[in-house]
Each structure stands twice: as structure tokens, then as C-alpha cells.
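User: Show me an example of a complex going from sequences to C-alpha cells.

Assistant: Sure. Here are the input components:
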Amino acid sequence: MKKEVAVIGIGITQFGELWDESFRTLFVKSGAEAIQDAGIKSDDIDALFGGNMSGGQFIGQEHLASLAMDHTALLPKPAMRIEAACASGGMAVASAYMAVKSGMHDVVVAGGVEKMTDVLTSHTTSALSTAADQEWEAFQGVTFPALYAMIARRHMYEHGTTEEQLAQIAVKNHDNGEKNPKAHFRKKITIDHVLNSAKIADPIKLLDCSPVSDGAAVVILASAEKAKEFCDNPIWLAGTGQATGSIALHNRKDICRLGATVEASRKAYEMAGITPKQVSCAEVHDCFTIAELCAIEDLGFCEKGQGGRFVQDGETALSGSIPINTSGGLKAKGHPVGATGVAQVVEAVLQLRSKAGPRQVSGAEYVLTHNVGGSGGTASVHIFSQ
Amino acid sequence: MKKEVAVIGIGITQFGELWDESFRTLFVKSGAEAIQDAGIKSDDIDALFGGNMSGGQFIGQEHLASLAMDHTALLPKPAMRIEAACASGGMAVASAYMAVKSGMHDVVVAGGVEKMTDVLTSHTTSALSTAADQEWEAFQGVTFPALYAMIARRHMYEHGTTEEQLAQIAVKNHDNGEKNPKAHFRKKITIDHVLNSAKIADPIKLLDCSPVSDGAAVVILASAEKAKEFCDNPIWLAGTGQATGSIALHNRKDICRLGATVEASRKAYEMAGITPKQVSCAEVHDCFTIAELCAIEDLGFCEKGQGGRFVQDGETALSGSIPINTSGGLKAKGHPVGATGVAQVVEAVLQLRSKAGPRQVSGAEYVLTHNVGGSGGTASVHIFSQ
């Protein structure tokens, strides 16, 4: 592993329905926390890459990266927004990595923020659906629960996956979220709760879905030289890979496999020089329970089709062989879409610093983060290590 | 000048009200043209950085970079959208530069696309205003013509600039646009036409404004090694600088000076190792005539406050000492907002290849492009050379 780019600071707000917070207070709070955590001054920052899916639709604000610099007194440092639907945060981290690796900048902010609850729920669903193929999916009325329901139904048909196994993922993520003070939901649930919750798009039920959340997360990346100057415990970006998949489901040979996840993780593993077996724990993109099931298969933690059994056997629980979504995941921690990919990195860093409290994975060596846009149109995978 | 990253291919669609073209056909056409121009195969491309301001609001489509890869058969190569309001295209080029410079990728696409005419005009104005400060400007009803009208009025008060001088900028850009087959408007106009056109936001009149356009542009960037392999006449990115300014006008010490432009160009000149006097010609961000006036001052082509006289004396005409907006600029070539910054680079490359036809600047050595987001919240400046 090359030690070239490190995370030297992290910050994250409470995730949830934050009626008392505006878009602006969210990024200011998470940014200030990250700067304090890194022990740097604002002026040490060279640039910002801000992940956000849909400020234009949610709060009538595009040009958000400029606004963020203005309101955090970082003018005239350059800033741009990165958008790849719900993978915007992961792609912002990838951009920040390239910016440092290029030598253009030494210390950069990768941030993610979304304010989703200041609009009508119907509008939120409509805005989120613009991450799908507008002409072939969204315009026809297909929503994201419906798209993932088709994946789930197919996975059941192909591999015998059960609704109980999917429910187990939600239960496990709520178990973890209960241990995370920043989580949207800190409440344990049971398989019966999930199975008896309202049907959203059969077989997906309310408690198979991640919530609509507000929140922001920030990580500060630095070159090896600056990391050593500012930081006693840098966490290195050991590997990173990004990939694109067909944006619409109907164009895929196998809708149970997210080709973008397979390809992005292949590149990340190759760069880090490790195999999936060496990953200590991972944050994966569980926008729906079926998404986590596909992710653990596509990332190589188990064979395709074996995910249901793998989950049922407790392998992905905090005490299992490969704990998944120790933060609570999108399901329980919450899913402010543009912030999610960055929040995953915050959890990875906490695990590698051994600062994850009651959800700590003992001896975490390599932590993987996996962020998906749409139903698999984009995937971003990062691997971190001490 | 370091020869590290080069433009090896360019493509651009017709700009205008393109009722027969969809968002998808626009980026496919410009991309295919750029690939053909570069003489490469699709498979030689490693990644895409797509500039787009507001696909979510204009056409109900976020996640556009993924869509672009899908519809140009570039899967599974990674892609992300870059947004910085009307500077999205310039920032996409900056991202592509960093991606190549970092060594992560060898050959990358920087594209820009916007489909603006498929919605009601009132909605277009509303969507564009989300590039301003939502809480302090847009929500109060201030539109972009109104913001630039305040800048124009102040420039007149401070520096004695006249409406005739501003009109001269529109006349000059239409003179150039008439020579550009891709331009939205290919029609000469007179100062009287401008002065007698409808008032939009006093002193800005209809013919002081750039139009609402559809269009796409693509440039292909490559590492020095790949550029030499694929290309006989690479055009080098000699210098680049990005900067952020206060997003809202009221926070600026001097609204006639775009601090972001001053800072971005300072960095670009420093990297290229040249002074403004060495620039042969430039594409600047003339969303309104007053914006071009501020730009030529802030970029150092003339002193602050002298822009009106400089224009009146013909210094910025095709035959002048520093021809500005040989393409016709945003005013006549058109302004599909996310595409503009990339289209500027297409013109720079044409000039440096001596392929600009009747609008060719003889012996062009350094060509500068200048792209602004909002009323100056973002600025991106690139300098190209042979």
C-alpha cells in the first residue's frame, strides 16, 4: 500500500429530520468539527469538493460549493460540487483524492450535505427519481422502492432469498444504529416489525427502506507530507475505484448484480493490494435491505446468491466475520443522499482509530466503504487503512 | 510552461433552440465528434467529467454523467458530474486536468451539456436563479439580469461607463458570432439595435443578455505520453486556476470587481508563466455585456474602470490588440450554461490550431478561457498554448 493521501480530520452532524437546522448550518457544523479534529486552521485548506445530489430540487440552491466556501470563510479557495446521485459523497472523496494526488492541492475538504425534509414528501420521491433514467424509468412512474423491489423479487427467484433474510439486514443495522449517537434511528427492531410494516413496493416494506434524512459529513484529505505535519494518526486511502453501470435496470444482463460495484471494488482491491477476505468491516450502500444483500455479494464477501444465508448466519453482524454497516448504515444512521458517501468514510476512520465506542470492531485493519448512485448507475469504493 | 496535460480532441454541437435534439443526442453528438477529432477509440477513454448546471430542474434528470457513459457505450468507465452553476464546464475541465495529472487516468473526457429550452421560460429564469444566494437573493425575487444590472449601474457611477460602450460589446460579439457556424445567433446587430431593445433590468436591455440555449461541447484531455501517441498537434493546458467569490453581491467590497476572476487568473498566469499582455485572444464569460467589461478588467487586459474606453477603441475586436470572444461569446454563440466553459476551450483549441476560419486570430500563441458561475461566486480560468 502506498501512503500518499490520508484522512486527517472528520466531522459529522446528527442525521435525522432536523427541523432546526438549515442546509447552511449543517455544512458549517460538520466542517468546523472536521477542522478541529484535524487540528488545522481554515487557512491550511486549499480546496473543497462537495457532494450533493439535488440542492436545486430540494432547496432551490445550485452552486452549493461556492456557498459553502462563502459561509465557512474559506474564500477565495476553489470549490466545486460533485454529483453522482446518491454516490455524490463517495465521488467527492474520489475527486479530493485526485486533487491531492495531482499535486494541485495539499489539503482538501471532501464534504457531503443534503437537506431533504424541507419539502413535501411527494416532492422528495419525485426529486430522488431523477437519479433514475428519466425517459425509460422515472417518466413511466417507477420510483426507487419499485426499482429495488424488482431486484429483490429477482434475487428471491434466482437464489431463494427470503423476506426474513432481508428483514434480518434491517434488524442488524438498527442494532448498530442504536449504538451510534449520530444515527437517525436509535431504536432496535425485530424481524416481525419489518415483516409487518407497510408494503411500499412488494416485497419491499417500510422497514426495508432507508429514511429521508438531513445531514452533513466532512473529511479532510492531505498529502503524505502534510498529513505527517498535522497529524499523529493519519488514516490512509489505500485503494479507490469508481465505475459506471447501466443507469436503467432493463439494460442489464443480470439485475441482481451491480456491475459498477464489481468493477469499482476490483480496482480498489487491486490498488490496495488486498482481497475481500482482508477487509475487517465495511460500510455498504443499503438504501434498501436488498441493496446491502447485493453489495456483500458484489464486493466479494460471499458468493453471488449466498448473501441471504450469510446474513442469516450472523456473519455480517457486529460479532460476525465481516461486520457490515457498523454505523447503522443508510437504514438506521440515515441517508441524506449527498452526505452518505462521506459519512461512510467518517465511520471507517472511527473504526481505524479505534474510536467507534460500543460498535468498535476489534483490531480493524482494512475498512471498505461502498457508495451507490441510483440503482447501480454509479459505484464508488474506497479502502482505508492505518 | 510544463507540457503535462494536453487537449487532443474537440467536439461541439450547434448551439441554439434545438427543438429536434434531446439532452441525450447533444452529448452523444459532441462526444462522437471529439473522439473522431482525437483519432482515438472509445475504449481509449478512462473517465468522464461532465459539466452541467441543472439537469434536475431543466429536464428532471440528475445523475447525468452515469447516463452519458451508458448512452455512449463507455461502461464501466467512471463518470461524475461537476456543478458550479454557469462555471460547471470550466470546473469539469479543471477536474479532468487533475485526474490526468494525478496519474489515476491517462485519457479523459471533459464535457458540458445543457438542455434549457424544453421548459417554460419562467421556469428557466427560476432555475437559473438557484445559482444565486437562495436566502439573500433568489428568494427575494432578484434575477440574474437584475444582479448584473446593479453591477452595471455601479460601474457607470464609479467609472463613467456608458450604455453605448456596453452595447458595443454585444455588437462586437455578434460580428464574431456571424462568422461561427455553430453560433446561436449569426446576425450582425448595431448599437441602435441594442439601445432600442426592450429593457430587462435597467440599464440591461434584451440585447445586452446572452440567450437561453441548448448545446453540448466536449474536449478530450490526455497525459503527455498519450498525447504524443495519439496526436500530431496537442494543445497544452499551460495554466489553470479556480477560485471562489462571495456568492451574494451584498458581501463584496466592490461589486465591479469579481474577486474570483482576479484570483483564478492570477494562479493561471503564474502556472503558465505569462502576463496578461502575452495572451493572444480570450474567451470570457459575457453572460451580460457588463460581465465582459468586468472580465477584461479583472483579467488584467486593461485597468479597472478603463474597460468601456478599451472596448470603444476597438481593442477587443477581432482586429484589435486582444480579441475577446472570437467565437461570438455567450452573447452570440449562445449560453447552454453547463456547456459554456467547455465550448470556450473548443474555441481556444481552434484558434491555436489555426482552424478558426474567418474569425482566426493570426499567430495565436496563448489563448485564455474564463468561465464564471453566478454573479462571481465561482471563476475558472485556463490558458492554452501549442
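The lines above are the inputs; the final block is the predicted structure for all two components together. The radius of gyration of chain B is 19 Å.
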